[in-house]
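User: Hey, quick favor. My workstation is busy. Could you predict this chain's structure for me?
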Amino acid sequence: MAKTRVEIVQENLHAAVASATAAASELPRDAALGLHTTLTAGKAVEIFADQVASRLLDVAARELRKTNQSFYTISSAGHEQNAILGTLLRADDPCFLHYRSGGLMMARSRLQPDLDPILDGVRSFCASADDSISGGRHKVWGSRPLWVPPQTSTIASHLPKAYGMAHALRRVKRLGLNNGLKGDSIVLCSFGDASANHATALAGINAVRYAVRRGGDAPIVFLCEDNGIGISTETPLHWIRDNFSHLPNLAYYTLSGTMDEMWDGAEAATRHCRTTRRPVFVHLHTVRLWGHAGTDVETSYRTVEEIEAVEARDPLVANARRLIELGAATPAALQQIITDLQARVDAACAEVTRGPKLTSVAEIIRPLAPFDETKIRATTAIQAGAEARTTLFAAVLPEKNPSPLKRTMAAHINSALADEMLRFPEISLFGEDIGRKGGVYGITAGLQKKFGSHRCYDTLLDETIILGLAQGIGLAGLLPIPEIQYLAYLHNALDQLRGEACSLQFFSNGQFANPMVVRVQGLAYQKGFGGHFHNDNSIGALRDIPGLLVAVPSRGDDAAKMLRGLVATARACGRVAVFLEPIALYHERDLHAEGDNQWLFDYPAPDQLLLPGDIGVYHAEAKDLLIVSYGNGLRLSLRAAKRLQEQGRSARVLDVRWLNPLPLEAIRKHAAECGAVLVADECRATAGGIADAVIAALAESGYGKPLGSVRAIDSYVPLAAAAKLLLVSEQQIVDAALKLGR
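Assistant: No problem, here it is.
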């Protein structure tokens, strides 16, 4: 039987150890490998051992896959020189690692002697419930004690949040947070040469350069592990060098050659980043041994000669020869290292394959969406002093406004943001134009002046970076409230919520969290202003994200209380939330007639809040019809209810407020008391809003009474008055209600 490429590579390593020419004398452990380097013999041997451990784990993953006991075979084989970086970093330097950073992870684990990276590695690729980071949910590199948040990305979508962490370090130092980070900590973020072409990667690298250009700091090491190929597509020769070596505000280091030469370059790069607080791009030359993964037939796109040429550049072979020839180790010593590590891997495989797996839905989803109401309400009980609030609001507290007019939603949100920022010093606001300008609708007006430019500031024009920034800030123990200027802009960066932020607690088994409240200005019905980007009524993509809280206020006092509830939930439970603010209601004053001021409300006292599941009910005594709605639809429904009442048909109106998760139990309860249910959904008819889910839930629960809905047309929203032809109207609600009553 022909030998596999895995077997050939392993034989090459053993042959290299056996055939290398030993030095005349062995170096002491603390002796440098040469006059040109600071790498000692002892440290070099440790790095080699870490590289061997990574390699043997890769072999084990592929061997166990043959018997369906391993479920992940993307290996680090050929990339093991990244262990050098793992040795040079400290435990308080957060690392965001891509899937070929096994050597780095092995080396980093030496910082915590009580950890067993081999056992953890086997548990991870065998989907063991005992896996120390994900609990069997995914194969990821990660560790809470080692400050390695798990990354599920294969396309460099973790670069923006790595930047966010680097951005947060200065504020962590200022607040003195006890999160294991230090004032001179730096961030490492690894990725491949193919991923370096992705828009998200380029956005992250651009953001750190932009930050430095604006006078800030960004202590981050971008580690590009360049093996020259992305699955089967070759990276052009010198592509990484030509694209990244000349960029202003980004120091470039290339690592190639012998282990000691790479050590010196890596040492210089990390020292530069730590002392200057500026970003560094480290170009690590590697090879990819074997195919992309165990199912990848490498001979379908590489010749045998090409594969053999790559195998001849195996870094472990080169390192073994180097250590022996320089006297850092003997052939017997290196062979013993390999033998001992193989025994540990074998023992781990034997133990793990007999171990537990995830066996229930409850067990799987436990860390997905934590919610502890007791902790949340305790968080809300933290109050700023009366004197501080009096100073903040210039002696006119919003709940005691002496003006005869009540206040709009815009005013309530502004005051609520101010109150929360005063209450929690770790809160920061950021987004496009929210600083000096106060946002395009004035919602953050005056907050930069009140709290300083370090807590309310403008970002560059990139939603991906805004959400990545929020993730890094949240990971660092702070509480970000980013703003997305328009709902349509959020779709440019949705994976930062779907694939990254909302998955972190799930894939870290609750050990890491990136709490945030994302303020999104959106929905339709704006007057005198239009176009599909500014009147976007599509929320289906948000409701699709597991664990994401989505809230839509319909009136000003609710907005303040809901915002407080989201802040408290994010702070207490680490949750990611979207606060979708209806632009058309920001400055709305009236309900039924111009000048009636019935859509102005008092500001609620700062200890009042609403939590997911808390709904709004109007005309609770009505039993003919239940109208379920939210946002702009609530006003339309209340106006329709008045007209229906005039025609002898009573309508109870329910404001769901929370679009994810939907308050289905409350809806069922009120539906049972009414003769029919109508969902007034201002979003798109097909998977754009909540009508499908509400009607399905009622039907599946055996609700035998009439059901109906009115929804917006499946279309982009056009300019001017034409928009009204597509959106839900008061008249449509009335007509549908009367039809249900026939």
